[in-house]
Specification:
With 63 residues, this protein is of the alpha+beta class. The chain has helices at 21-33, 51-58, and strands spanning 3-9, 12-18, 37-42, 48-49. The protein has one domain (3-58). The protein is built from 2 helices and 4 strands. The chain has a 4-stranded antiparallel beta sheet with strand order 2-1-3-4. Helix 1 runs antiparallel to helix 2 (51-58). It starts with a strand and ends in a 5-residue tail after the last helix.
Length: 63
């Protein structure tokens, strides 16, 4: 699976490729904690998700 995690920092767009949903969520979390804005995860089809939306669709819940 190929996922792109992107955000904006100081008016510049930055992006990182990740290969698993868990890695994409971790990267998105670290980017948000680092103060980056407009963090999104984009899947191979081009659909873009906010981290909460992505987590709801792609990461397993523990019960």
């Amino acid at each position: 699976m190929q996922l792109i995690v992107s955000a904006h920092q100081n008016g510049q767009a930055i992006a990182f490729q990740q290969i698993t949903p868990a890695a994409a969520m971790e990267k998105a979390r670290r980017m948000q904690e680092g103060g980056l804005h407009d963090v999104h995860i984009t899947d191979i089809t081009g659909r873009s998700y906010a981290p909460k939306e992505f987590a709801a669709c792609f990461t397993p819940t523990t019960s």
